[in-house]
Design goal:
The structure holds two protein chains of two kinds. Chain A is an all-alpha fold. Chain A has 26 helices and two strands. Chain A starts with a helix and ends with a helix. The mean pLDDT of chain A is 80. Chain B is an alpha/beta fold. Chain B has one domain: Rossmann fold (3-Layer(aba) Sandwich). Chain B contains ten helices and twelve strands. In chain B, β1 (3-14) and β2 form a beta hairpin. The longest helix of chain B is centred in the C-terminal third of the chain and has 18 residues, at 173-190. The model of chain B has no long low-confidence stretch (mean pLDDT 88). The chains are: A mainly alpha, B alpha/beta. Chains A and B meet through α21 and α22 of A and α2 and β6 of B.
Chain lengths: 645, 257
């Protein structure tokens, strides 16, 4: 094991040297250099250095987060910090380009800080439960990347360099960024060394650490801020380089580092070697005329498998305590009926309501007959998709007893997006049917991976959630590689990702409605399982529940519902998370009312989002999924930051 | 006396450690059996094996004259009820709904609950003294009440054998006595078999008919409470010197010297 690190470094140096445009220039007067030598001096050499320095920064950042949160799957990408930085940079570039005059680093830091504060806030209220933290991070980064994607979409092809940049390209045109980042790494390394001893005390439970006289809050905050600065600096310099911060400490542990001090010391080295090796491979591939992939997107591919590998290492911690004082109604089914009725009335109203240049009006019979063939499929389809996602969310939250489980985290949407994009890129002129079946196939593949995770030795619900996160992140990495190819097709993918119901046909909408009815019936049949499963696998097994089969059925139902909604109207966001919570707040505690009430509320939410998307910038449509997540996110943040008792 | 459980050469190994070393043991039917031992002696691990929550690495367990792995899932749950050491928070469930979950092994996922299911649930709630609390939510009850609500679920299951993992560890003295008296009466009055992991030696001696003691994953004692309560035996089990005294009614109590 001792020789692994030097050997890997040697290999990456070799790959780098083989890809060099010329030998090392022996003179440094710019005018005397040939073009190749210039490229070597100001392109290739800083790139090699950048790989090492950025890898070191990310390794240190990940190690700090893992030590301070006692969480082997924490890193800037899983906690959403890198995505926050990326969103801030994209938003500023698109909306306030003037601000970039101050440099990219402050902008990236603001975004990273906001994302970290959000995730840490959610975590702090839930005892920094490892899986919950990663799911919160995944939600933040899903939102950030969909929002960044939509901004890119809105600005047309002018911003294509932005897409390439967010993929984390290490291409350099000078020594400035490398030196700046090296300075950050040196300062950060020094600070981390000073904090090594308090951090190793924090390796104990927070209570014991406090008893040993450590100011836990201050050390934790300081370490997280340092990790954010390191990650944001990398984001500002080269863009999103995913999962190096996750892999580096894991490699350090595999090489024998056990104590926090050892991990902090070794992780920057393993990170540097890892990123430099990946970049060497990317350079070699580019040398053979393959398309130029941004290195950061390629490291993203490591993330999914790595998370699956780290899965057994997680301590089995109980999921966070649910909100205690949620109401509970005595006659819940009547309330479900009322909600469903209100949803249908809303649907009818939205069918009739028209907006003309003169103002609002209810459509008369003649115009209604004109509009109905267009409007009914769209509204019915959107409502059914919302209901399916909400049902999937409610079933998953019950299955895993984790209030943060949602269809977005399951990875089925991600798989479907890959399928859609894959067909779009591989076929010359794909038909709508081909695209839809591509998306269905992708979703089915993601579901197969989840099934394998469930069928593993012990059907622990955490396993399922993390497998979902792994599939999601793998899908995100693949997508960003496809996007970096930078053709008009990338825009078609972006448009689909932001989700629009306007292209829905009558048969598609009818299919969705039928599926919703089927899914509701299936959920009611599984209601007894879904009552017992939240009590955990031990109780379920003791009561004679066929644990593996039941889990499999629930996952299949959730995946089918999510997949169908995604395939037809794009990966709409956050309805699957919001609706079950709203239903619970309406006092629907038992399984059947909770599931059905969630579906009805999900449909209503999606109708509202669709109305908003149509009216916000009338007469132009906004993307439905994007609008739904814009509505949902502030609510989500508010809910997450409330103190559970 | 027929054997409830027969264990032969039961061994459980996890990476780096052996938790149970080749146990050969038989547990009596219709009695309250106490599992005792120091921390990490493997008593909870043994109970998990008996309840089929985990499988042994080596060896075989026979339950009611049938190999444990051969039992169909629901049939086993009709004969065997298990209460984990830390029952989860039953979010949103009422006491009656929790107790009614004990009927799952009888009516299954889709079967219609009949009058016998309702009667069993009512009887279990009454047996645990929860009549006044049946409509309350479990997550608003005190620790002792919640523990009794979980016991009601176990009783509603109407299994002939109950496996309890430290059912009194979170309770105060009054509730400890209450719960163990209930467990004892279930065995005495209905002929049920109970296997209970207990931390408190004196409680074990007082409420159990049969004691099994483990030390570092090995069997060190098996017999009646009276045989157990001698200073030498207790020193073997706990590695601490104990003094055994006799109370007015003749029952022994042990205190550390």
């Amino acid at each position: 094991m001792k020789f692994v690190l030097p050997l890997a470094l040697l290999l990456s140096a070799l790959l780098w040297a083989l890809a060099a445009p010329s030998g090392l220039p022996d003179r440094f007067a710019t005018e005397a250099l040939s073009l190749d030598e210039l490229l070597m001096l100001y392109g290739h050499m800083p790139r090699g250095a950048m790989a090492l320095v950025a890898g070191g920064c990310l390794g240190l950042s990940g190690a700090l987060l893992q030590v301070v949160l006692r969480n082997p799957i924490a890193d800037p990408s899983t906690l959403g910090i890198s995505s926050g930085a990326q969103l801030a940079l994209v938003a500023v570039t698109v909306l306030f380009p003037g601000l970039l005059g101050w440099g990219r680093a402050p902008v990236a830091l603001a975004g990273a800080g906001a994302a970290a504060a959000l995730v840490m806030g959610m975590g702090a209220l839930r005892g920094f439960h490892p899986v919950t933290m990663v799911i919160a991070g995944m939600l933040v980064s899903l939102f950030a990347s969909s929002f960044a994607g939509a901004l890119t979409l809105a600005q047309g092809q002018y911003l294509f360099s932005l897409v390439v940049w967010t993929g984390g390209s290490l291409v350099q045109t000078g020594w400035g960024p490398v030196l700046a980042l090296a300075l950050v790494l040196a300062l950060g390394g020094g600070l981390a060394a000073l904090m090594a001893r308090p951090l190793s005390v924090l390796g104990l439970e927070a209570e014991s650490a406090r008893a040993l006289g450590l100011s836990v809050g201050r050390v934790r905050a300081l370490a997280v801020v340092l990790a954010c600065v390191l990650a944001a600096s990398v984001s500002a310099a080269v863009g999103l380089v995913a999962f190096v911060g996750l892999a580096a400490p894991a490699l350090a542990r595999a090489l024998g580092a056990r104590r926090p001090g050892q991990i902090l010391a070794l992780a920057p080295l393993t990170g540097a070697v890892l990123l430099s090796l990946v970049d060497g491979l990317v350079l070699t591939a580019a040398g053979y005329g393959t398309e130029m992939f941004p290195t950061g997107a390629v490291t993203g591919l490591i993330g999914g498998p790595l998370l699956l590998w780290l899965l057994p290492r997680l301590r089995a911690t109980p999921p966070p305590a649910p909100d205690a004082h949620l109401p509970r109604k005595a006659r819940p089914l009547r309330r479900v009926g009322l909600i469903a009725l209100a949803t249908v009335v809303l649907l009818g109203l939205l069918l009739m309501l028209g907006r003309t240049p003169d103002g609002w009006s209810l459509l008369d019979r003649e115009r209604l007959a004109l509009f109905l063939p267009n409007r009914l499929p769209r509204l019915a389809g959107a409502a059914a998709a919302g209901g399916l996602l909400a049902l999937a969310g409610a079933a998953l939250q019950r299955l895993t007893a984790n209030p943060l489980a949602s269809p977005e985290v399951l990875g089925v949407s991600g798989g479907a997006a890959i399928g859609y994009a894959g067909v779009l890129f591989l076929a010359a002129a794909p038909s709508a049917v081909a695209l839809t079946s591509g998306a269905a196939l992708g979703g089915a593949l993601a579901m197969a991976v989840l099934t394998c995770a469930v069928l593993g030795r012990d059907a622990r619900p955490e396993r399922l959630l993390l497998a979902g996160v792994a599939v999601s992140s793998l899908a995100a990495a693949l997508l960003s590689i496809l996007m970096a190819a930078g053709t008009m097709k990338s825009f078609a993918v972006l448009a689909w990702l932001s989700g629009s119901a306007s292209a829905l046909t009558a048969s598609g909408a009818a299919l969705l409605v039928a599926l919703l009815a089927f899914a509701c019936a299936a959920a009611v049949l599984m209601a007894r399982w879904l009552t017992i499963l939240p009590l955990g696998p031990e109780v379920a097994r003791a009561l004679g529940l066929p644990l593996r089969g039941a889990t499999l059925c629930v996952v299949a139902l959730a995946a089918l519902a999510t997949g169908a909604a995604t395939v037809l109207v794009g990966p709409l966001s956050f309805v699957g998370l919001m609706a079950p919570h709203l239903a619970r707040r309406c006092g629907l505690a038992q399984a059947v009312p909770h599931l059905l009430g969630s579906a009805a509320l999900g449909a209503a939410l999606m109708l509202a989002a669709d109305f908003g998307a149509r009216m916000a910038s009338f007469p132009y449509d906004l993307p439905l999924g994007l609008f739904a997540s814009l509505l949902g996110t502030p609510w989500l943040i508010w809910m997450m930051l409330r103190r559970p008792t | 006396m027929t054997a409830l459980y027969t264990l032969s050469d039961v061994t459980l190994t996890v990476p780096g450690r052996t938790l149970l070393h080749g146990l050969d043991l038989s547990l009596p039917s219709g009695k309250v059996t106490g599992l005792i031992g120091h921390n990490g002696s493997g008593k909870s691990t043994l109970l998990k094996l008996l309840s089929r929550q985990t499988q042994p690495t080596r060896g075989s367990i026979t339950f009611a004259e049938r190999p444990l792995p051969d039992w169909p899932t629901r049939a086993l749950a009709r004969h065997l009820a298990y209460l984990p050491q830390h029952p989860p928070a039953a979010e949103g469930l009422s006491v009656r709904e929790l107790a009614a979950l004990g009927r799952y092994p009888w009516h299954g996922a889709l079967g219609r609950p009949g009058p016998e299911d309702r009667n069993a649930t009512d009887a279990a709630i009454a047996a645990c003294g929860l009549d006044g609390l049946a409509a309350r939510r479990v997550d608003t009850l005190s620790g002792g009440e919640a523990q009794r609500a979980w016991l009601a679920m176990l009783i509603a299951q109407e299994a002939g054998t109950l496996l309890l993992d430290e059912p009194i560890s979170a309770l105060d003295i009054a509730h400890q006595v209450e719960v163990l008296t209930l467990v004892q009466s279930l065995s005495r009055a209905r002929g049920r078999s109970v296997v209970v992991v207990l931390h408190d030696l004196n409680m074990a001696a007082r409420y159990c008919d049969h004691i099994v003691a483990l030390k570092s994953g090995r069997l060190v004692f098996e017999g009646t409470p009276d045989d157990l309560m001698t200073p030498d035996r207790l020193h073997d089990i706990y590695g601490a010197r104990m003094e055994v005294m006799t109370r007015a009614d003749g029952s022994p109590v042990a205190l550390p010297v």
